[in-house]
Amino acid sequence: MKVVSGMIRAMKFLPDVISFSLGLILVLVLSAAPLSHALVVDALYDQEIPVQGQGDAERLRAYREALTAVILKITGEERWLRNGAVERAVREAQNYVQEVSYRSSGGASSQTYISIRFDQELVNSMLGSAGIPVWDRNRPSVLLWLSVQSADGQRELLGSDSDHPILALIREFSQVRGVPILIPLLDVEDRRSLPADVAWSLDEAAIRRASARYGADSVLSGRVLTSPVGDLVGLWQFLFRDRVEIFDSLESDLAAYMQSALNRVTAQLATHFAINLATRPAQEQVTLRVEGVDNITAYVNLLAYIRDLAVVENVSTSLLDGSNIELDVTLVGSTYLFTEFITLGRDLIPGELTNPQEVQGNILHYRWVR
After folding, report:
1. Which of 61, 67, 153, 329 has the fewest beta carbons closer than 10 A?
2. What is the DSSP letter of 131?
3. 103-132, pLDDT tens digit by residue?
């Protein structure tokens, strides 16, 4: 099972995706509704670092910095950087390097950058041996509703066109961590379904209704106010599946304020979807019945899609019946996690069961809609 490196493959539902260096997804400006936004984030094992020249010492420093950033992207949690095996790997980062190139930004203030690609199998093997799960490139999106209140009491609900420094911090986090973060349009429809005062109150029902048009996998809503002494005080609500989590935050710095909240939800998503590549659970077998596979292109795309899921070890065709196909799938995780990854992709939607009891026999019914 491999996590294939390359460029971002934007889903067909995303006409306007803003992409940045190394093909990582940053904040997505939404231009149509309804949309679905689970995305494939590639180049997870690539990193670009600014350097002062091409000397050996500077190159080794860049290797260590780059591997630290890569491990953070593919584990999703900062705590793993303090693991002994990871610390040793970072000290010997040159042993994991697969490819290196340099570029210059040009201009009067020219800056040299080193682009480093690490060996995916070596890095994954190191993490697996240390019992550290790896977060695959199929990543859930986070829709972010954020209300800010200045020291003079003025409140603002931020949208994709807002001119606020906090959006630059969100973009930076999204790039560094490889997390698709969606900022609402804040158009007439958004303002009607989620007025500023309702957004500030973190009304769960109203936020769910306003978020439905974006089809995001999770929703983070928050409010932050600046106290008279300059502290940032806020409250957050995170909606993921059927879970609701409320947590507060107090920081003196805007970057630390956003980092704290985004770190928290990123760690939760990574914990849900990451897989330990070394100590895998016992393999499960599941039969996948798919309708709507009505041509050879759809058949090839379906097989490629299923094989590319991190939880899938092997897939084979057991039945072809017109536009219906039956696949035997071997999993390295649970059937539940398999359905979670399918939910992220949006190319398969649940189909109707002819016999509800078939679910108990690990038979899943879906329709191919790509």
Report:
1. 153
2. T
3. 998 878 899 999 999 999 999 999 999 999
